[in-house]
Amino acid sequence: MDFINKQSERVKAARTRQEDEYQSYMKQLDDREAIIKKRYESFDEKVHICNKFGNPTASGNDILTINAGGKLITVRRDKLCQIQGSRLEKLFCGRWDKKLPRDSEGNIFLNCNPKCFQLIVDYLNELAISPPDNLPKEPTFDNNYDDIMLRQYLELFGLCNFVNRDPLPTKIDSACISTSTPKSVDILHEWLDEEGEDGKLHLLYRMTRDKPVERSDPSWWPNELRSFHDNCNEQGATLSLMKTTQGIVFGGYSNTGWGDEYTEIVEFGFHRADKAFLFILSDNAGAKKMKLLDPNDPGAILCQAGYGPVFGHDLDVISSTGQYPLFMHVKFGQNYEASGVADFDNGSSFHIKEMEVYQVKKPAKSFKHTWHIETIESIGSDVNQALNGKRRALMLAEEEVSTLEQTLMEEERLVEFMSSGTTSDIIELNVSGTIMTTNRSTLQVYKDSVLARQFDKVWTDKGCSDEHAALIEHSPYCFGKILDFLRLKELNDNKFANGLWLPQVCDSERDRFRKIVDYYFPGEESKCILG
Questions:
Q1: How far apart are CA 126 and CA 175, in angstroms?
Q2: Is 206 a member of any domain?
Q3: Mean pLDDT on 84-91
Q4: Is residue 201 helix, strand or coil?
């Protein structure tokens, strides 16, 4: 009988453990369900608040007149909203009608290049009458610079994926490689992508710009090497560019961060960097990439205070004396592939005119849940399936509400950016007879410029009032190029666009363009536009 009693106690204990496990699991699910429901309720409240800016009678048949940078474009609402999920659809669905900026005539105002927006509207009008097997060709310009600008606006309105136009690669404002064309940037991104390491490039260090942190320790190495370590240590994956006095650009990528003996996280000495590679960008040698010969090489990079970027025994940056404070030695084919250029593979030394180091920020992975509840397998199969089904449903719900929250937040940010200021901050310009319209903030991107001062809050132009456009006595072609650049600069500064390319001006207008830029942006500011 004692044996039976013991077994009965074991059964009871097992049932108790199972019930406790069930209750514990249910509590986790119920707690998570309550959190998700609260997020849905909060989202609904935000949408309700946003609706006060909306037009309750908005209809797809509404005819909208849009002032696109000074050109009036008439289009039906349903044409602008036919690409579901795009920023353009969100802007004109009616939710933000009372918030969108208006010019003095009551037209919706978009501070953009009018040719680009007209091309987008033309595409959408054609899309509305096109069968699924004969969709319109992607909008494009024959001119390379105008096409780059169009892609910026396609990205702004969230249309790149819908019209099969790839978004522009991240533009870097580099002093080492050309800023007038995206070709070199494209090549760098292609090489990074080959290693599965592509991402946005964020400037950490520029030799001619960054000064070192003052230290009392006399043993520290020259200023430029100190500054490199101050700015680049413990920053993760980086792309280094070294421009020589001969105009050749050498560089290297390391997926292992830099460090030195003063660094707590990255130990000094040689390190593995299995995705590392070297490269050359040269007019004579072309573009060449040299991969690490052995991904498990323990000497792929060197982290040490007395050196700048060092890649194996193939490329090292050290201090120098004289006009150029840094010196570089290259001898490819040691730890990395040979370049095929005898001078570089047999060993050469160069003075460094400029050096830059960029942090490579890889894009975020797919949605990651903020909680982790394991599947359960210890109760009955039917109960297990029901509990695990609820778990999966909660995970999907969390992903959905997170997407809704993120979309609304981006929507609000875009509308706030576009609607900043008042009607009086929408400036109409008469550029030698050509009307152009923009925001006051765009004209004041460079706050110390002559152009910014001309249109500050206390600005009063001769004969200028709400009824008269401000007269700009310059070439419409040249001033239009400046205005397009300032618009894109403002988009980039507010993280609505990736990359800023210098204006491309035809040969016959180049001298005039330079004079007008120098007039409005004297001194160093003109270099931001002219290069």
A1: 42
A2: yes
A3: 90
A4: strand
Which of the listed residues 121, 156, 191 is the one where a domain comes to its end? Answer: 156
Pair (518, 439) in one structural domain: yes
Residue pLDDT, tens place only, 484-501: 999 999 998 888 887 778
pTM for the whole thing? 0.62
CATH at residue 101: 3.30.710.10
Give the span between the Cα atoms of 181 and 190, in whole angstroms.
Answer: 15
The pairing of beta strand 470-472 with beta strand 426-431: parallel
Nearest residue to 51 (alpha-carbon basis) of 113, 1, 8, 94: 94
pLDDT tens-digit map of 20-49? 888 888 888 888 899 999 999 998 888 888
Whole-angstrom Cα Rg for the chain: 30
Instruction: Identify whether 4 is part of a domain.
Output: no
Burial 295-323 (b: 16+ CB within 10 A, else e): eebebbbbbbbbbbbbbbebbbbbbbeee
| Mean pLDDT estimate for the chain | 84
The helix/strand count (H/E) of the chain reads as 14, 17
**Residue 214: DSSP 8-state:** P
Residue 72 covered by a domain = yes
Q: Which residue range(s) make up the domain with 227?
A: 183-361
Residue with tokens 């969709």: 135
d(CA 30, CA 531): 60
Domain check: are 236 and 328 in the same one? yes
Residues 6+ apart with CB under 8 A from 214: none
Q: Are residues 114 and 194 in the same domain?
A: no
Q: Cβ neighbours of residue 185 under 8 Å, at least 6 residues apart?
A: 169, 170, 171, 172, 177, 499
Same domain, 442 and 350: no
**Of 62, 158, 70, 66, residue with least CA distance to 121:** 66
**Bridge partners, residue 289, by sequence:** 279
Cβ(317)–Cβ(227) below 8 Å: no
The two tokens of residue 356 are 């830059």
Number of domains in the chain: 3
CA pair distance 64, 291, nearest whole angstrom: 55
Of 331, 361, 391, the position where a domain reaches its end is 361
Q: Who wins on pLDDT, 462 or 497? A: 497
* Positions of E strands within 40-199: 63-68, 71-76, 108-110
How far lies 40's CA from each of 47, 216, 328, in Å? 11, 56, 58
The answer to whether residue 347 is domain-embedded is yes
Does residue 33 contact residue 395 with C-beta atoms inside 8 Å? no
Is 457 found in the same domain as 324? Answer: no
Percent helix, strand, coil in the chain (nearest 5)?
A: 40, 20, 45
The answer to whether 258 touches 309, Cβ cutoff 8 Å, is yes
